[in-house]
Amino acid sequence: MSVKEHYDTLLGGIYSWMIGDFESNAVQQENFFRTRNLTSCGIAFDLGCGNGIQSVALARLGYSVFSFDFNRHLLDELEIKKGELDITIIQCDLMNFDAEQSIHPDLIVCMGDTLTHLPDRETIFALLNKCSSALVPGGSLVISFRDMSMALEGDARFIPVKSDDTRIMTCFLEYFDDHVAVHDLVNEKKEGLWVQKVSSYNKVRISENEMKELLAESGFSVISSEIINRMVYITAKKKGAVDL
Predict the structure, then answer these.
(1) Are the beta carbons of 1 and 188 closer than 8 angstroms?
(2) What is the pLDDT of the chain when averaged over all its residues?
(3) Helices in the chain by DSSP H: which ranges?
(4) What average pLDDT does range 77-100 have in this prediction?
(5) Closest Cα to residue 200, out of 184, 188, 187, 178?
(6) pTM of the entire predicted model
(7) CA–CA distance from 141 to each of 13, 168, 169 (Å)?
(8) What is the pairing mode between strands 64-69 and 43-47?
(9) How far apart are the C-alpha atoms of 105 and 83, rounded to whole Å?
(10) What is the pLDDT of residue 20?
C-alpha cells in the first residue's frame, strides 16, 4: 500500500488522536523555532504539514505560511485550527510543492517523520534539491526524521503507540535492507465490539550521517543536529553565492 493510501484509509483519521493535544504540541514547536532564532515576518513552507502543528507555530511567530499535504482529512483539520492566522493550505504530493515557482520562502520545514515516507534515498535527495532551489539565498531548512538504520530485534519490533478505552494502536516493524515495512494495527470498540484495522506502508532506512551528506550535496550547511525523543532534528542553511 502506498503512503497516501495508508493515510487516506487509516492513519489520517486517527492522526490527531495519536499525537495528542494540538495546542500543547503547537506551543512546544513554537518554542523549538524560537530557541533556534527562526522567527521572522517572512515566508515559510511546511512540507507534509499534517494537521498543522508546525504551521500554526510558525504563523504565530510572524511567518506567512504555505502548508502542503496530500491528506484532505488532515488539511480540513488545519483549516479549522488556523483561525485568522496567515496560513495558505495546498493539497498536493510532497514532491510537487514547488509547482508555484514565483514564491521563494525564507524557511522550509519538513518535520515529523515525513522524509522517510518518500520511496527511497534518491527521492529524498531530489526533495532536498528542490528545497535548496526554492529557498532564498541563506534561507533555512529544518527537518526531522526517525533514524531506523539500526534494526530492532525480537519483541522490540512491536511498538505500543497509544491506547484508551475505545482505541488501541500498535505497530510492528519489519526490516529490509533499504526500508522498514511499518504495519499499523488499530483496534476500535464500536457498539461494544472490538474491530481491528490493519494497514502497512514503507519507510526509508537512512541514518543521521547519511542525511547530513545528502544535505551537503544539496547545497546546505548543517547548523545543528540533535536527537529529541528518539527523533533526529537537523537545522541547515542554504549556502549563498559566496559560500558555494
Answers:
(1) no
(2) 94
(3) 3-6, 12-19, 22-35, 53-60, 72-81, 121-134, 208-217
(4) 94
(5) 184
(6) 0.94
(7) 29, 35, 32
(8) parallel
(9) 22
(10) 93
The set of cell numbers assigned to 89 is: 493550505
C-alpha cell recorded at residue 27: 506551543
- DSSP letters along 114-133, please? -GGGSSSHHHHHHHHHHHHH
CB–CB of 159/169 below 8 Å? no
pLDDT score for 99: 85
Res. 244: pLDDT tops 60: no
Q: Residues of the chain with pLDDT > 90: what percent?
A: 91
Checking 127-133 for CB contacts under 8 A at 24+ apart, the result is: 127/47, 127/94, 127/95, 128/214, 128/215, 128/218, 128/220, 129/218, 129/219, 130/95, 130/97, 130/98, 131/47, 131/218, 132/218, 132/219, 132/220, 132/238, 133/98
State the Cα torsion 38-39-43-45 to the nearest 10°: 40
* Residue 130 to residue 123: CA distance in whole angstroms: 10
CA distance linking residue 115 with residue 118, whole number of Å: 6
- CA 197/CA 206 separation, integer angstroms: 28
Cα separation values, 5 from 2, 10, 16, 188, 209, Å: 5, 8, 17, 20, 30
Any idea what DSSP says for residue 151? P
Work out the angle at residue 150's Cα, subtended by the Cα atoms of residues 148 and 151, and round it to the nearest 5 degrees: 90
